[in-house]
């Protein structure tokens, strides 16, 4: 029963995609007379698109505010009591309350809840090395980070950038820095960029990045950021080389921000993310929900829990949580592992399992890789595309697809994402009734060409 004069109180920790989607959806379903909503955000912004930061820094998106879907004032107008610059320091599960601290004044107070939503997101991994905090070294996790980087770019005369990390944020930031007129070096720990792809597909990305004038340094780690007499970054050092840098951008991944949850004794998985049921309720806790970058998700193809921090999931989680908290019913069954990104005109996409994921899951599989084009070969603008496909032995079930190509390559992965969700075999995929006209694809779409080849290979077993 509510402690709030008949009205229930929902407390939300985290004011971005997961937290505010949950709050907004709950508000749609239940009015302020039934449900009080209090949301805490320690930063300066709400409901913003971190996904847009590379395009804002690169200049494709002109203004920061274009990345803000809903401001604090807009949330408040919908009767969400949003407390900005207020950090939740503790969750008291037994007492059903949270302790929050005003970041600027330091004042602390307890707020009780009937239901709690945890949407604390992720925190970036910062390398533990000399110079990591030197002026000129930037992360790109928040809008404040993006602004700080842009301020540095405006002040910096030199035009050499080093990007540390070659995951999707690293490659997107490489593009941003090229667009800003920088000579870009990407330093990467893996054997190829984009470790979410198999290395043979990552190799294609590597070659294309070199073709764009990006210096790609693989198989090494940054050990130090070296500074000049002015204290600012001057170079990045690896065990065997030094790369001059006027600015350094860090994109080496994130970890779930679950320190509060861990201290409160809530259940965490192997990757440190909160564990939930299909309704996004924290396992074993009737009144606590969690979503977004702070949770682990079920991979529907492998049947294993995974940590995949993406905005697309955070928004869906928030919608599901808000529906359930608001008295409706919704579930988030899991993901198939779809992601798309680009570096300049090179599009990179993946869904399902890589070879190593399939092996880890104990699956036996066949792989095929085909070359095709984005349009009919004779149609102007047709560009090459490589599609790799994994299918399970014997059953022929589709297990994964990776695509590297130019315009029109990336979003083709959605065909495979649907096929994975529907648990289709590659044989079934060959008959998919996809749209065809010469400006859009060859008569056999590249995904279908791969499916045909995979079906033939699987049949041999
Ligand atoms: C550069 C970049 C590019 C990206 N591109 C893509 C993309 O193309 N596609 C895609 O799907 N995803 C992308 N993402 C990922 C996407 O932005 C995240 O998955 C998404 O923001 C997660 O939303 P969230 O609400 O779970 O967490 P967050 O966005 O991290 O929000 C969590 C919020 O909680 C607040 N908070 C944390 N702890 C507390 C506390 N104790 N008290 C109060 N407030 C707290 C934080 O300040 C933060 O605002 C990108 C991310 C980055 C950084």
Structure description:
The N and C termini lie far apart (60 Å). This protein has 12 helices and 25 strands. By secondary structure, the chain is of the alpha/beta class. The protein has 3 domains: 8-123 and 255-325, FAD/NAD(P)-binding domain (3-Layer(bba) Sandwich), CATH 3.50.50.60; 126-252, FAD/NAD(P)-binding domain (3-Layer(bba) Sandwich), CATH 3.50.50; 339-456, 3-Layer(bba) Sandwich (FAD/NAD(P)-binding domain), CATH 3.50.50.60. Strands 3-2-1-7-18 form a 5-stranded parallel β-sheet. Strands 9-16-10-11-12 form a 5-stranded parallel β-sheet. Helices cover 25% and strands 27% of the residues. Helix 1 packs parallel to helix 8. The structure holds flavin-adenine dinucleotide. Residues 13-19, 40-43, 50-51, 53-54, 87-88, 119-122, 140-141, 169, 257, 260, 292-293, 309-312, 314 line the site of flavin-adenine dinucleotide (FAD).
């Amino acid at each position: 029963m509510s402690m709030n004069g008949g009205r229930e109180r929902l407390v939300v920790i985290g004011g971005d995609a997961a937290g505010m989607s949950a709050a907004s959806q709950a508000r749609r379903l239940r009015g302020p007379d039934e449900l009080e909503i209090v949301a805490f955000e320690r930063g300066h912004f709400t409901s913003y698109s971190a996904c847009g930061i590379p395009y804002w820094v690169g200049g494709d998106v002109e203004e920061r505010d274009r990345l803000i879907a809903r401001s604090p004032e807009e949330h408040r107008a919908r009767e969400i009591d949003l407390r900005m610059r207020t950090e939740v320091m503790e969750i008291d599960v037994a007492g059903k309350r949270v302790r929050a601290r005003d970041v600027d004044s330091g004042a602390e107070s307890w707020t009780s809840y009937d239901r709690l939503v945890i949407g604390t997101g992720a925190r970036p991994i910062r390398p533990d090395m000399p110079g990591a905090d030197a002026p000129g070294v930037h992360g790109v996790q928040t809008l404040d980070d993006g602004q700080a980087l842009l301020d540095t770019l405006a002040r910096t005369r030199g035009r050499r950038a080093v990007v540390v990390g070659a995951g999707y944020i690293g490659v997107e930031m490489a593009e941003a820095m090229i667009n800003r007129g920088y000579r870009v070096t990407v330093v990467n720990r893996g054997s190829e960029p984009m470790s979410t792809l198999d290395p043979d597909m990552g190799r294609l990305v590597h070659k294309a990045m070199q073709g764009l004038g990006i210096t790609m340094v693989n198989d090494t780690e940054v050990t130090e950021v070296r500074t000049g007499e002015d204290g600012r970054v001057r170079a990045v050092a690896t065990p065997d080389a030094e790369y001059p840098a006027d600015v350094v951008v860090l994109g080496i991944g994130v970890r779930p921000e679950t320190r509060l949850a861990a201290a409160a004794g809530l259940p965490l998985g192997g990757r440190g993310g909160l564990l939930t049921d299909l309704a996004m309720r924290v396992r074993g806790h009737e009144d606590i929900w969690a979503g977004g970058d702070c949770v682990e998700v079920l991979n529907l193809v492998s049947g294993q829990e995974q940590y995949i921090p993406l905005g697309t999931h955070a928004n869906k989680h928030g919608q599901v949580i808000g529906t359930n908290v608001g008295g409706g019913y919704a579930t988030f069954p899991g993901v198939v592992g779809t992601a798309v990104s680009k570096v300049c005109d090179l599009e990179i996409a993946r869904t399902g399992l890589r070879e190593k994921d399939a092996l880890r899951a104990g699956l036996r599989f066949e792989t095929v890789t085909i070359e095709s084009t984005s349009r009919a070969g004779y149609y102007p603008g047709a560009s090459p595309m490589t599609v790799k496909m994994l299918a399970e032995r014997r059953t022929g079930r589709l297990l994964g697809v990776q695509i590297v190509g130019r315009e029109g390559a990336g979003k083709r992965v959605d065909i495979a994402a649907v096929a994975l969700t529907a648990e289709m075999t590659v044989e079934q995929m060959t008959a998919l009734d996809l749209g065809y006209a010469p400006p859009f694809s060859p008569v056999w779409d590249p995904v279908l060409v791969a499916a045909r080849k995979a079906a033939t290979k699987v049949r041999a077993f």
